Amino acid sequence: MTDPKDAPLVRLAGVGKNYGNVIALRDVDLEASAGEVTCVLGDNGAGKSTLIKIVAGLHRHDLGTYEVQGEPVAFSSPRDALDRGIATVYQDLAVVPLMPVWRNFFLGSEKRKGFGRMDITFMRRTAKREMAAMGIDLRDVDQPIGTLSGGERQCVAIARAVYFGAKALVLDEPTAALGVKQAGTVLRYIVQARERGLAVIFITHNPHHAYPVGDRFLILNRGRPIGYRTKEEITREELTALMAGGAELEELAHELDAAVSGSGSRAAKELAEGADHLRKSD
Amino acid sequence: MTQAVAGPPAAVPDERLARESPLRRLLRRPEFGALLGAVAVFVFFSLVADAFLQADSFSTVLYASSTFGIMAVGVSLLMIGGEFDLSAGVMVTTAALVATLVSYQLTLNLWVGVAISLVVTLAIGALNGLLYIRTGLPSFIVTLATFFMLAGANLGVTKAVTGNVASDSVRDMDGFESARKVFASDVDVGGVNVKITVFWWLLFVGIATWILLRTRAGNWIFAVGGAAGSARAVGVPVARTKIGLFMGVAFCGWFSGMHLVFAFATVQSGEGVGNEFNYIICAVIGGCLLTGGYGSAIGAAIGAFIFGMVNKGIVYAEWNPDWFRFFLGAMLLIATVVNLIVRRRVERSA
């Protein structure tokens, strides 16, 4: 899908980050090209948030290189990243629930026509059109955004980022707090953003959400990459296994077994079976 | 309504409703509850108080409404921005005292005192805002502190300078007559004397409504009150917006203070305590949510009008005015319950 002579939109090579003497991130390579979805997977504390914060311009990396369209960068604020076309949509900081959809859509980047007056007709029309382009047919752009479902709210935030010229979209766990159906909605818009030629970096801890939409997968564990594969190189089962950390699961099974020794420990048995299964598929 | 038309709500969001009727749109406005309340109070006092409908008494009602309403403009914007200002009541007295004391002691033209008062009052507003932003404490606490400090300073400074609890009369000083025309004159409307504050009040409400609904600043006010974190994340200058709102309250306080000066020529330094709650009540009755992010300046104006009607209506009905506060409390309770229902409805599917 990508033009081979173009450098990837976002490229990290050997990136690392320390917080004092805590090594938060080490040796991370990552590429995100236009029209592709790069998934970053990992459990809590794996370093996903640190990675996003570097990409989004909130933190500066200590080691390695961060390139945007082949040019090394060191952002000092999210505004810098935005100016280079890298927009981040945070899970819980997406919208203001009581405000109408169109006001949310343009919040912080209001279109004006002098004397601080906003061009309301333009903003309402544009919000409606952009949402329609994402496949959400709004009944009324004046409805408070809180009346939309959680998935749709994320989509407004995504549509907004796309409209304001984002070339790369960083999505921080957009499906985490959502039900199955709503997560499906968000995944659909991730695919749509990809088809509109954006580079998407999709952070999640759910391999079942990542696999269907992803082109590349970076799996982090304790701040280090434990796998970086393209879709051809990995199956859904392998991804799940990498993500769950088969060895750790086995260890847990042993511990449980020891703690509740005897035949009664059904949980331990099931875990052990799970670990077995994972090891085979690895 | 919705429930009657809707199937499962989440599945097909775009087909939940047919076109919305104008009546339902009106129902959704923040000031709707206040409007109903205003009509009810108006009809009630028209029936029980014969004098209520006379033009002169109605002008008095409007005057009372305007003195609260002007402050309620700033207070309601601040409340939509998610904050309180408990120093608003005594700030009016401070503004008035600064203008009179400075002019009188230095024998300046009163307009100079008016200008100095504006600067001082805006500085107090900015200080409220800065303290709130810098400390991260709730605005309730920060402005409670400035409330006590101003209340004490009003009395202390006045006593130290004049040896009295009131400022000296500035009636004979230069600039009094011209400033009185601006801040405290009567306007003849078809044979009825209407206080000029009524027109200033309407002007301020108009400006505030325009700012809220038509300008970028208005968008920011709703956003910082509704979800400050989200607003910051999309680049809204939250600190600047909130400080501006505190200064807006200070501006209204300055104006109200100037009205006091030129209506009475002398200022009682202990005045203003307790009024801050009256302004908040106006805003809340008018549909502003205590939690911020929702409300309107027109609603606050209707709230102030209800306030004025009850305040004077009780007098015209020849009741014991002690009951005024009882009514106020009851209205506040009803208004907040109505607001709660509105908010739940708005955030229903959230």
From TrEMBL, chain A:
Nucleotide-binding as UniProt keyword: yes
InterPro entries the record matches? AAA+_ATPase, ABC_carbohydrate_import_ATPase, ABC_transporter-like_ATP-bd, ABC_transporter-like_CS, P-loop_NTPase
Locate the region Disordered: 261-282
Q: What keywords are annotated for this sequence in UniProt?
A: ATP-binding, Nucleotide-binding
Q: Which GO terms describe its molecular function?
A: ATP binding; ATP hydrolysis activity
Residue spans of biased composition, Basic and acidic residues class: 267-282
Q: Which residues form the ABC transporter domain?
A: 10-247
Q: Which domain of life is it from?
A: Bacteria
Pfam families in the record, alphabetically?
Answer: ABC_tran
| Record-linked SUPFAM superfamilies | P-loop containing nucleoside triphosphate hydrolases (SSF52540)
Q: Which PROSITE patterns match?
A: ABC_TRANSPORTER_1 (PS00211), ABC_TRANSPORTER_2 (PS50893)
Give the matching PANTHER family.
CARBOHYDRATE TRANSPORT ATP-BINDING PROTEIN MG119-RELATED (PTHR43790), SUGAR ABC TRANSPORTER ATP-BINDING PROTEIN (PTHR43790:SF8)
Q: What is this protein called?
A: Sugar ABC transporter ATP-binding protein
The protein's organism comes out as Actinomadura montaniterrae
Automatic annotation (TrEMBL), chain B:
**Membrane topology according to the record:** Multi-pass membrane protein
Main location per the UniProt record: membrane
Q: Which GO terms describe its cellular component?
A: plasma membrane
- The signal sequence is none
Q: Please provide an example of a Pfam family that matches this protein in its UniProt record.
A: BPD_transp_2
Please indicate if the UniProt record lists DNA-binding as a keyword. no
What residues form the membrane-spanning segments?
32-55, 61-79, 86-104, 110-133, 140-157, 196-213, 220-239, 245-267, 279-311, 323-342
Q: From the Swiss-Prot or TrEMBL record, state where the protein is found.
A: Cell membrane
- GO MF entries: transmembrane transporter activity
User: What InterPro entries does UniProt report for this protein, alphabetically?
Assistant: ABC_transp_permease (IPR001851)
Keywords (alphabetical) are: Cell inner membrane, Cell membrane, Membrane, Sugar transport, Transmembrane, Transmembrane helix, Transport
What is known about what this protein does?
A: Part of the binding-protein-dependent transport system for D-xylose. Probably responsible for the translocation of the substrate across the membrane.
| The protein's name in its UniProt record | Xylose transport system permease protein XylH
